[in-house]
Amino acid sequence: MADANEYKATFEMVDVDGDGYISPAELENLMRALGQEISSTRAIEVVVAADGNRDGKISLEEFAELMSRSAL
């Protein structure tokens, strides 16, 4: 299990509306800000893949898991 506190600051920057979750639209905005084009469909696919509890958005804990897997 990843330590969510390691990723909290990054998560909060992505969570623009401050609701405690990353939506597909917020992920899309992040990728574009980083200079990476991403379609709305691909953003939804990434959220679905990271969304452990299937609520349609990424929580801090899910984000930490995604980031720790990506770092390997």
From TrEMBL:
Annotated SUPFAM superfamilies: EF-hand (SSF47473)
A Gene Ontology molecular function term of the record: calcium ion binding
Domain annotation EF-hand: ranges: 2-37
Key words, A-Z: Metal-binding, Repeat
GO CC, any one term: organelle
Residues annotated as signal peptide: none
Classification via PANTHER family: EF-HAND CALCIUM-BINDING DOMAIN CONTAINING PROTEIN (PTHR10891)
Name under which the protein is recorded: EF-hand domain-containing protein
